[in-house]
Specification:
The structure holds 2 protein chains of 2 kinds. By secondary structure, chain A is an alpha+beta fold. Chain A is built from 10 helices and 24 strands. The chains are: A alpha+beta, B mainly alpha. The complex binds protoporphyrin IX containing FE.
């Protein structure tokens, strides 16, 4: 579609011609190819530069480390490549090109479908794959056998052929498959786009225990990423809590002490007056509540800590979510009460042994909690809780001073123990440990459209790639010595071993049964 | 047999396979070197006989080349036979690895490498006659051997159970299809590379190139293998991949680096298929695109782990790296209030 017959320069064209010319360029095979390659190249940076949607912490670390590049990259949208306008431009152009390409082909196909296989060309032996042989059979016998052989192979036969001629065609479904594939690509993209426009994805940490829980309201989410057309009233009503949680620990092998699998016993109500239902929530086993899906994607420990001030009044009490640092669940966390002037941060060891004076965590399995240890650094002063917008997982110690125990070490506590802070500051008690689950909750409308589209695409692709469209002609003519038979095959996809097809066909016409070539 | 015994058997079988591949390679090299200086016609004649086509009348008896030709044929057959044996040992290694782990043997990079190369070898052995691949022998055997060695020397990891996210039958289907596609693309890529070499020496009269089929036939063979691979890749990356990701991580498509590169590979191969039907892109450019596709595929498999650590596909992480999100704990790391 390149060597367009009109090689006029755009300057000499009317606006109409220019539009036609541009449309033809855009829908040419070459443009489609170049757009595909551009799409591939455009996708690369997103895999090398940290992406906002994937890991925002990593993005901000990267930005802190590259202060000169950051503004440029930000301008170019390189921290959100797959949402960037230039990325969208490429695939929108590709879609337009695709639509422009398949609509005319649909018409052509429709007409071709109802047409008869074309009559034999005048000179069969000039076809690229052709041969001839002499036989003693009559013309009628040859034609009858050709019809039978081709019919058995499900060729469509031309009805009004000239005497002594057979014209046949098969493999129409190849083009159908190809068209189906290209249409399905559009369906997938539309499904995908609509899903991300109307859907959302949120995360929340829920403590394990009947007294804790989650209600599906915006304010309850820890993080929430809506599509641009999401409306809060899409959130359906449900309440859930995690009744119990089981971890299957690896007790041997190089990954000893890590979690192999985990499962939560969830109880939920999907309406204000519905009865409570239970569900075993596990990785690879999400819960679907009225189109909203709940996934268990992580877990950890939350030490229960009580801080009392010098007068013995409680300033903070309750579970604090600690985040695992490694696979054996050595976890880090922060306790910063809004009241009082004592804060703490430190490590939680689910199962600690002291080796050479250094605490070591040996497994994530907390067992009967007797080896669990909380190792805290305590700080005194303004913890900045009054400022808005700060992470609950870090402690800004810039306006604080450190409180040391007698040896200058951290305060190490077992469950039930209380540390007395120096100078009558107060006490810290490690009451207990509970577990938490990280849940991801999301809606992906139209997901079945996208998935169905991909399946159709695969079906079409198989037709397009594996079906061999070809035309076959046989012409028999009486000669002095008997009958001369000419056979020609035209491969319409250009990927066939046509010579083998010709010789196989001749063998069958001659009554020799040979092993079928494709 | 105990888990440990199976693991040992697997390791021994891998070592055996590597040694036998090496012998097969040597045999093909001898075959090659005997070809140097041989006239193309002689070689083709022998080829036809060997391929079971109607026997062609041998011209003249006892030419001086006769026993050299015999030698070429013998070492060719020996090489193929050795490759079959090696592939069998290789398959044994994969299966016993699976038995040792009590799951499908593709939980980490080592296993993926051993399985992937095994599939290349088995596909080659199986298609050898149908697609008449004898001309491909040295390249395929060398490739399989080198990657198997890299796997053993650089990526080896003892048997471990899978972490939860990987413990799904979707993983079995997904990774199996992806491995199979990787094997097919690799064979197809080798065919395309040979196509490009052949283009430079189109009328080579002697040596290895004289045995390679015509350009048109090479291009067709490459296309058929790629087409097969593309269908599998589409199935693995765009159907089973998203379904599995959705179950494990709660979202179909994340633009995670592994996914990005799988997508890039897909788009490049779609480009290859288009190029074969586009004026000015047929032949050479299409073959180059196929090789680019193969490069992106292997980069995704090996390279991306070194460039990016955000990938959630932890089964592919290098042994020394701490696997990420899948296990759950690290997922907390993304939580900020
Ligand atoms: C989203 C973008 C596209 C993708 C992923 C895609 C994919 C494919 C694939 C995989 C094939 C191979 C089938 C075969 O070889 O028979 C193919 C063939 C084809 N595509 Fe596309 N395509 C895209 C866009 C387009 C566009 C925009 C056009 C219009 C120019 C187009 C026209 C064709 C044609 C004419 C064929 C048949 C080639 C042949 O006869 O072998 N495609 N496409």
């Amino acid at each position: 579609m390149t060597g367009s017959p009109r090689e006029a320069t755009p300057r000499e064209m009317t606006a109409r011609e220019l539009a036609r010319w541009s449309w033809r360029q855009l829908t040419s095979m070459r443009t489609a190819l170049i757009l595909l390659l551009l799409l591939a190249i455009a996708a690369v940076p997103g895999s090398l530069i940290p992406q906002e949607n994937l890991d925002s912490v990593k993005v901000s670390n990267w930005q802190d480390a590259h202060t000169t590049l950051t503004p440029i990259y930000r301008r170019l949208g390189l921290f959100d490549v797959y949402g960037a306008p230039w990325f969208a431009a490429i695939y929108v152009l590709l879609m337009v090109s695709l639509i422009g390409c398949i609509i005319p082909r649909l018409f052509v196909y429709w007409r071709g479908l109802r047409a008869q296989p074309p009559a034999a060309p005048r000179n069969l032996l000039r076809m690229p794959a052709a041969t001839s042989y002499e036989t003693a059979e009559s013309v009628e016998e040859v034609v009858a056998r050709a019809n039978a052989v081709l019919g058995r192979k499900r060729y469509r036969l031309r009805r009004e052929s000239a005497a002594g001629e057979v014209a046949a065609e098969k493999g129409y479904l190849r083009e159908a498959g190809n068209l189906l594939f290209h249409c399905a690509v559009i369906i997938v993209l539309v499904g995908f786009a609509v899903g991300s426009l109307f859907g959302y994805k949120g995360g929340v940490i829920v403590l394990v225990g009947d007294q804790y829980g989650f209600s599906n309201e915006l304010t309850q989410y820890d993080d929430f990423a809506p599509g641009s057309l999401f409306k809060p009233d899409q959130l359906n009503w449900f309440d859930l809590h995690i009744h119990d949680f089981h971890v299957d620990w690896l007790t041997s092998g190089p990954r000893q002490g890590m979690a192999k699998g985990f499962k939560s016993e969830v109880q939920y109500e999907d309406g204000p007056s519905s009865p409570s239902k239970s569900y075993d929530l596990a990785v690879n086993h999400p819960l679907d509540i009225g189109g909203t899906e709940v996934f268990l994607i992580g877990h950890g420990y939350a030490p229960v800590v009580t801080i009392r001030d010098g007068k013995g009044d409680i300033v903070a009490s309750g579970p604090r979510v600690f985040l695992p640092e490694n696979q054996s669940f050595l976890s880090f966390g922060v306790i910063k009460p809004a009241a009082g002037n004592i804060s703490a941060q430190g490590l939680f060891y689910p199962a600690e042994v002291t080796l050479g004076g250094v605490p070591q965590n040996i497994t994530g399995d907390i067992g009967d909690k007797s080896a669990a240890m909380l190792s805290l650094q305590v700080w005194k002063g303004d913890n900045g809780m009054q400022d808005s917008e700060q992470s609950v997982y870090t402690l800004d110690t810039s306006r604080m001073t450190k409180v040391n125990d007698t040896g200058g070490r951290a305060f190490n506590l077992r469950v039930g123990q209380t540390a007395k802070l120096p100078d009558g500051l107060g006490t810290i008690t490690f009451d207990d440990v509970v577990r938490w689950n990280k849940l991801q909750i999301s809606q992906t409308p139209f997901k079945h459209v996208a998935l169905g589209g991909v399946s159709l695409a695969l079906l079409g692709l198989m037709g397009s790639l594996f079906i061999r469209p070809r035309r076959v002609w046989v012409r028999a003519r009486e000669t002095a010595g008997g009958t001369l038979v000419e056979v020609a095959v035209l491969d319409r996809s250009g990927n066939d071993e046509v010579d083998a097809v010709v010789s196989g066909l001749v063998a069958q016409l001659q009554g020799r049964e040979v092993e079928e070539m494709s | 047999m105990s888990t440990h015994a199976y693991e040992l058997l697997s390791n021994r079988a891998v070592a055996t396979a590597a040694v036998v591949y090496f012998l097969a390679l040597l045999s093909h090299l001898v075959e090659w070197s005997a070809l140097i200086g041989r006239r193309r016609a002689d070689v083709e004649e022998r080829e036809l006989v060997g391929a079971g086509a109607p026997a062609v009348e041998a011209r003249g008896l006892e030419t001086p080349d006769e026993d050299r030709s015999e030698r070429v044929a013998m070492f060719g057959r020996l090489g193929y036979l050795l490759t079959c044996i090696a592939a069998l040992a290789h398959l044994t290694a994969v299966v016993s690895r699976g038995l040792a782990a009590g799951r499908v043997p593709w939980g980490n990079m080592y296993e993926f490498t051993v399985t992937g190369t095994c599939i290349v070898a088995v596909a080659y052995v199986a298609l050898y006659r149908r697609l008449k691949l004898s001309w491909m022998a040295p390249a395929v055997v060398a490739f399989v051997m080198v990657f198997l060695m890299v796997g053993v020397l650089a990526l080896y990891a003892p048997v471990e159970p899978l972490t939860e996210a990987l413990n799904s039958y979707w993983l079995v289907i997904h990774v199996f299809a992806a491995s199979l596609a990787t094997g097919a693309f690799t064979l197809g890529g080798i065919a395309s590379i040979i196509y490009l070499i052949k283009r430079r020496y189109p009328d080579a009269d002697s040596g290895w190139m004289s045995r390679v089929p015509s350009l048109a036939s090479l291009d067709r063979t490459a296309y058929r293998i790629h087409a097969f691979g593309f269908v599998l890749w589409t199935f693995a990356v765009l159907i089973t991949g998203p379904i599995w990701a959705h179950q494990a991580w709660g979202s179909y498509w994340n633009w995670d680096p592994k996914e990005v590169w799988a997508f890039i590979t897909w788009v490049v191969y779609a480009g290859y298929l288009h190029a074969r039907a586009t004026a000015g892109w047929k032949g050479r450019n299409a073959a180059i695109l196929a090789i680019v596709g193969l490069a992106t595929l292997w980069f995704n498999f090996i390279g991306i782990n070194y460039f990016s650590t955000t990938s959630a596909h932890s089964y592919a992480s290098v042994p020394s790296h701490a696997p990420a999100i899948v296990d759950g704990p690290a997922a907390g790391g993304t939580v900020t209030a």
